[in-house]
Amino acid sequence: MERWTGRVALVTGASVGIGAAVARALVQHGMKVVGCARSVDKIEKLAAECQSAGYSGTLIPYKCDLSNEDEILSMFSAIKTLHRGVDVCINNAGLAHAEPLLSGRTDGWRNMLDVNVLALSICTREAYRSLKERNVDDGHIININSMGGHRIVPSADEHFYCATKYAVTALTEGLRQELREAKTHIRVTCISPGIVETEFAFRHHNSDPEKAAATYESIKCLKAEDIATAVVYVLGAPPHVQVGDLQMRPVEQVS
């Protein structure tokens, strides 16, 4: 990880869960991390904790609604002005709504597409442009996907969400191919966790907290820190090594 010291990483959805754990880990390894979310109160608190802990990197909170392209573009412009550009892009932000295919609300579907697919694609495109205009040829784009992007969960509430995650699987491989065609050494990785104990289920099942809690009580789940460890592993691999799709489940998870 020494080669990433002092360089700039963007982590989307950095206020809680996996995003917060990844931001903390990268700051520990000396990176300058821009952590974005719709609300930055928790990121500001995390930044203060990182500073108090004496970590060698820094965490810069940035307020951004990823469902709004103009806000994403403004964020990249600000990063260019203040920090020259993005070297590592961690597309972590994602959400799920309980909107079945036969009865779901269109605005719920659209919100999942906007954040899980379009925001990821816009951030990826802008990160690539940032790398190219600075002639940086060793950047890294990491998409935090889901095992839901590799098999369909047998639950109507999850089907549209799984579709967006299948899109992330396809986008990651498509990006790998385009980067090869462009003859760059920029790497792209997809990390696909199974059940991770975060606030995700409580947001997903916001009208049924008991159902959300049951999601995490049935087995020993992954922790957000486990995914952060995977991100550090992927970034720390030798420059000629590309980890394409890293799938990780709790040992007790059935599928």
From TrEMBL:
UniProt-recorded Gene Ontology molecular function terms: 3-beta-hydroxysteroid 3-dehydrogenase (NADP+) activity; estradiol 17-beta-dehydrogenase [NAD(P)+] activity
Domain of life: Eukaryota
Cited Pfam families: adh_short
EC category name: oxidoreductase
Catalytic activity annotation: a 3beta-hydroxysteroid + NADP(+) = a 3-oxosteroid + NADPH + H(+); 17beta-estradiol + NADP(+) = estrone + NADPH + H(+); 17beta-estradiol + NAD(+) = estrone + NADH + H(+)
Family statement drawn from the similarity comment of this UniProt entry: Belongs to the short-chain dehydrogenases/reductases (SDR) family.
Function: Catalyzes the conversion of the 17-keto group of estrone, 4- and 5-androstenes and 5-alpha-androstanes into their 17-beta-hydroxyl metabolites and the conversion of the 3-keto group of 3-, 3,17- and 3,20- diketosteroids into their 3-hydroxyl metabolites. Exhibits reductive 3-beta-hydroxysteroid dehydrogenase activity toward 5-beta-androstanes, 5-beta-pregnanes, 4-pregnenes and bile acids. May also reduce endogenous and exogenous alpha-dicarbonyl compounds and xenobiotic alicyclic ketones.
Protein name as annotated: Dehydrogenase/reductase SDR family member 11
Source organism (scientific name): Scleropages formosus
